[in-house]
Amino acid sequence: MVQLDPTWLDASAPWNVKARRAARHLTELRQEVDAFRSRRPFALTPEPTDTPGRLAYRLKFREPIPADLSAIVGDVLHNLRSALECVAYELAQRTRGAALTPTEERATTFPIRPTPESFEEFFTENKRRSTLFDARSRTALRRVQPFWLADQARELNIDLNDSVDRVAWDELTRLDALWNIDKHRRLTVTAWWPEIIYWGSNGESQRKAYRGDGTVADGSILLYVDGTDEGQGDELSYEFNLTLTDDPARHANPNAGQDVVQLLGSWHSRIVNWVFPTIYTALASAPTR
Fold first, then answer.
1. Which DSSP helix (H) or strand (E) runs through 238?
2. What's the distance, Cα to Cα, between the start and end of the chain in Å?
3. Burial class of 100 by CB neighbour count within 10 A (0 to 12, 13 to 18, 19+)
4. Spatial contact of 10 and 286, defined as CB atoms under 8 Å apart
5. d(Cα 141, Cα 119) in Å, to the nearest integer?
6. Most buried pick, 112, 159, 204, 282, via CB within 10 A?
């Protein structure tokens, strides 16, 4: 059995403190989003069309998304990314066995690289990193990179043979991209995205839905509906997710619209329950040289 170093689990360790702070911001975000959503800031209303029996459902945003929500998102992103940075700093200190110089401190960061080649370049593009991260540290960091699954598949002689852009969908890739936007450029952009739209009927529905104008903006025709159901009105039931438009996964799949609270919650869980334990286990089992 692998014996983990218990100091990594210390509640007062910077990476654990940062992870807890991210969780608190997540709670605040959930409360603020729920309060905003409860005001029903969007509506989907039917309008007649030139086609008999067909209704157009127009999307209307009654209230803009508060900018403060994006600021809270940034707080979550910052603390999650900072938790990773603290782990990298600790790895460097343990490798050196002494306090780092200011120059060495600036060289420490948690690498998030898309390929094995770029991961290795991380340690050569700054010559100090070659002495700040020993073999165990590099092994541990490699096991949580965006290409980790491809690495494992190669080790087991498994052909993934699919077209999924695993790097674009990787949680750390997405966290890093959004963190850089929030840190250096602007607030992360949020937008509403349809989660579910449905209607009720007293039997098999006679209504059929068709795609609208293909946009999700104030004034968009979200969908058309043909037909009616006896005893039922024209109103639809619907819910929208508040999403992050800067999420790299949205570029890989424009229809990816996971709710921001669920999304960031899954990233927090991924880091605390997979990234950290994977690193700790690798450090305990990997050779030092």
1. strand 237-244
2. 21
3. middle
4. no
5. 9
6. 112
Distance between CA atoms of 248 and 169, rounded to whole angstroms? 7
The letter for the amino acid at 281 is: T
> Which helix (H) or strand (E) covers residue 178, if one does?
helix 171-184
| Local structure of 146: helix, strand or coil | coil
The count of domains in the chain is 1
Burial grade of 158 (CB within 10 A; 0-12, 13-18, 19 or more): exposed
Q: Is the pLDDT of residue 151 over 80?
A: no
In a domain, 1, yes or no: no
Residue 58 lies in a domain: no
Residue carrying structure tokens 């293909």 = 214
Q: pLDDT tens across 245-272, in order?
A: 889 887 767 666 789 999 999 999 999 9
198, two tokens? 């449905």
- Nearest CA among 129, 98, 133 for reference residue 283: 133
- pLDDT tens per residue across span 65-90: 999 999 999 999 999 999 999 999 99
- Residue 229, SS3? coil
Is 277 strand, coil or helix?
helix
pLDDT at 160: 65
Query: Among candidates 229, 175, 225, 180, which has minimal Cα distance to 206?
Result: 229
Question: Angle at Cα 171 formed by Cα 73 and Cα 167, nearest 5°?
Answer: 135
Contact 200, 237 (CB under 8 A): yes
Nearest to 70 by CA among 170, 181, 176: 181
Do the domain assignments include residue 227? no
Burial of 184 (0-12, 13-18, 19+ CB in 10 A): exposed
Q: Could you tell me if residue 131 is inside a domain?
A: yes
pLDDT above 90 for 144: yes
